[in-house]
Structure formats: structure tokens, C-alpha cells
Amino acid sequence: MTRDRSGRSPVVCGVDIGSTNTKVVALTPQGAVVARRRRTTPRGAVDLSVDAQHLLFAIEEMILDICSDTYRVHAVSVAGVGEDGVLVDDALTPLTPALAWFDTRRADVFADLAPRLRPDAALCTADDAARTLVGWRWATEQPGAAQARSWVALTDYPSSVWTGTPFFSDTLAARTAAWDGHSRRWIEDRVAAGIGTAALLPPMRRAGDVIGGFLSDRLVTAGVIDPDAVVVAGGHDHPIGGWGVHAMDPGAVLDSMGTAEVVVAQAPEAGIPRSDDLDVAPGILSAGTTVLSVEELARNVEWASQDAAVGARLQEMISGDTPPDDYLHAPVFVPGSRGGALPRYTPDAPTSPLSRASAVLGALARIGARAQDAVAACLPGQPAIYAAGGWSRSPGWVETKKAVTGRDLTVIPEPQVTATAAALLAATAIGWDTDPATAMGMTAHLDDIGAHA
């Protein structure tokens, strides 16, 4: 392996700040993932908010652990949660915790804010309690907010500190419900209703932009950062992950199946509008549009699993231990919808736990197919579909989706797709010719397909 002037092997690092876990991946110039680390995203014991400085410390600990005396980082990029953030002072010290996008306190804030939000067709996402402008409003009412000099998204916080430069990733701006994705401008009345003034919003940067060099005393002193290393803007986790798959297979779709099912792709057309089934964000390293559709998975399974017998059958089918029955194709389960509407069975639903579990999985597979349809309609031809996320590791679920939709689905071997995509973005920014298929663990898979063709 190539060594740099320190005698260490050069790598780039990608970070994925998730709602549950935060991951770091190290990637060689050729695209081999040589190290992965994961820690629980640090949250408060009482209200589940995130202390941004604790998060930064945890990420740096993982980078130090990855590098040890073997690797040296030449670039890093951070992707992650879309809506959480903090108010900071001039020294980038957080003045507020990061209110989680799923925190129930947001509901009351949104109820107060909603009457002041005029509909705007230029928004990239629909209005709801999870949007960033709700977090803005909450933060401005917290102790210490009067000393704020800037708002920094939680995902952008590590990079802002490492460079001493607060910034706002454009794919995170798309999640605020206060940004015009076509003109790339803030919508003044929404900013005023949320954070009060656009003066608290830092400069916008595109995914893949070089923000600056490292100023992190801790990492630099440890010798794990190359003197010429740079920090590269990342952004919202799903678009970054989708771009990584697109880099591997241009025009492909990523179906990311975790707590929610998020289907995302890079569409070549600019200015695609948001719809009821589609959120949008800026294209990554392109003039096109990121398109994504979100459907709930875990909440529907949790609801159905309140009946222990149904829950047991669901787990058996998801893992592939028990096949579904014919109710897989029967519309007798209605999934919960956006806005909190509860799932339900129709009056003619069977009482058999196996049949009910089959109906639940069939319904979830169909709404996933609807999300695939919404995204694929923005792409040319018949795009390939790749799967990632925890549910993609469950063979029964993958086979259920194939049986219901009749579509092929290729599971990406690399378990940390978003962190790996962020690392690919960092590698691209410094001119490395890194192979995305190798990074995603697909090279052996594609070679195997070729051998059997």
C-alpha cells in the first residue's frame, strides 16, 4: 500500500451522523474500505437532544482509533441527519442542544408556527414538525440564544469546527422548509418566522465543495491529519448515499431500508418540483436534482407486533425462516400515513397471525414500490435498483419485495453506504480516482455475475 511522507498509508474518511448511530469509514485511494467504526450517537438521558461537542469528540475518537499509527487522513466529509442543529457563538461553541427531528416537543412548536407559514411551491419538502425551521424556532427560545452568532446544522458542525468556518450544506438547506431550491435563496418570511433573521444563517456550500484545511488541534497534534488535508462539504445522508450509488452505476436508484424506507436517486433534469410523493434537493456534483421518496417501515411493524403472535410471524418472515401465505397480495392492511395516522386492518382481514403478518409485509412492499415509481419517473430508462440499510440484510424481506413488485433488487455488500459515499465525495474533491464499485463492495459481486453470465 502507498505511504505518504509520514510513513502512514493515505486514506480519506467519511462520516455518517445517524439518529441512532454515528459511523466513520476510512477509504484508500483505490477505493478499499480499510476500517469502519460505529458509536451510539450521544443523546441526553432525559430529552434525547444531542450535545454537538460530545458528538464531535466521539467522531474524533473514532478517527484516532481508525488511524492509530497506520493511516493518515487526506480529506474528510460528513453526511448525516437532515434537520437537527444548534445555535453557536463566535467561537462555534454551542449555545443550545440539537433538538432531535423526532422529538415530540416539536409538535407544539409547529402548531404555533404553522399559521404563519404561507404555502410556497418552491419548497423542497412538505411542512411538518420535523423540519428545521421548527428547530430554529425552539432554539431561539432557549436560554443563551441571545448570544448566538450563527446556526449550524448538526451534520455540518464537525466540519465547521475543523475549519473554523460555519457553513450550511445545500442538501440540508433543502430540509429546512425555508429554502427555495430553484433560486437557491432563503424564503424571507419563513426564515423570519423560524429563526428571526437570515443573518444567523451561514454561507451556503454545495456537496463536494472544499471548505478549508484542518484546524483541529487534537487530530493534527496526534499526527493523523496530513498537513495538506482538507474538509469537504457533505450534507443530508440520503442524497449523499444515493450519489455514492450513482457514482458506481450512473442513473441507479438507492432503496435505503431502515426505520423508514427512503428511495433516492440523482436525476439529470434541473428544477424538478416537489410533489406529495417526492422531496427534492440539489443534485450532487451535477446541475440535476436529487429526488427522494420516504415511506414508513418500522412504525407499521411495531404497530402490528402489538399482537405478539403476529409479531413473531413477522420476524420469521423478515428473516426468511417462514414463507408468507397468499395474503401477501391481499390489501387487508392499511399502513400508517404521513402525519401520524395509525395503521389498521380492513374489516375483512383474517384473524390468523400468519395471514395478518403476510398482509403487513405485502402492503409495506407495495408502498415501497410506489416510492420507487415516484423516483424512477424522474430518471431515463429503467434504472437499476440497489438496496441498503438494516432491512436489506434480511433475506425474507428482500425476497418478499421481489415477489410483490416483480423487480430485481441488488443488495449492496458494504454495510455503511452513506459513510462510504461521504468518503468517496472527499476522495473526489482531492482528485483521487477512487473506484466506487470497490468501495461499495460490489467488485466481487459484479465479477461473480460476469463469471456466470
Give me the side-by-side strand order of the main sheet. Answer: 3-2-1-4-12-11
Number of helices: 15
**What CATH architecture label of the domain at 9-237 and 418-439 applies?**
2-Layer Sandwich
Tell me the CATH superfamily of the domain at 9-237 and 418-439: ATPase, nucleotide binding domain
Q: Give the low-pLDDT segments.
A: 446-453
Q: Averaging pLDDT over every residue, what do you get? A: 94
Kindly state the number of beta strands.
20
Largest sheet: 6 strands, mixed
* N-C termini distance: 33 Å
Output the CATH class name of the domain at 9-237 and 418-439.
Alpha Beta
What is the general shape? globular
**And the CATH topology of the domain at 9-237 and 418-439?**
Nucleotidyltransferase, domain 5
Give the DSSP E fraction (strand runs of 2 or more residues).
Answer: 15-25%
Radius of gyration: 22 Å
Family: Belongs to the FGGY kinase family.
Protein name: Carbohydrate kinase FGGY N-terminal domain-containing protein
Keywords: Carbohydrate metabolism, Kinase, Transferase, Xylose metabolism
Describe the overall structure.
With 453 residues, this protein is of the alpha/beta class. It has a domain at 9-237 and 418-439: 2-Layer Sandwich (Nucleotidyltransferase, domain 5), CATH 3.30.420. It has 15 helices and 20 strands. It has helices at 52-67, 106-113, 132-140, 157-163, 170-173, 188-194, 217-221, 237-248, 298-304, 308-319, 353-376, 395-405, 417-429, 436-439, 443-452; strands at residues 9-17, 21-27, 33-40, 71-80, 85-88, 150-153, 168-169, 179-180, 185-186, 204-205, 210-213, 225-236, 253-257, 260-267, 279-282, 289-296, 333-334, 344-345, 385-388, 410-411. The strands form 6 sheets. The chain has a 6-stranded mixed sheet. A 6-stranded mixed sheet has the order 15-16-14-13-19-20, sandwiched between helices. A hairpin with a 5-residue loop joins strand 2 (21-27) and strand 3. Helix 3 packs across helix 6 (188-194) and helix 10 crosses helix 11. It is globular and about 65 Å long. Residues 446-453 have low confidence and may be disordered.
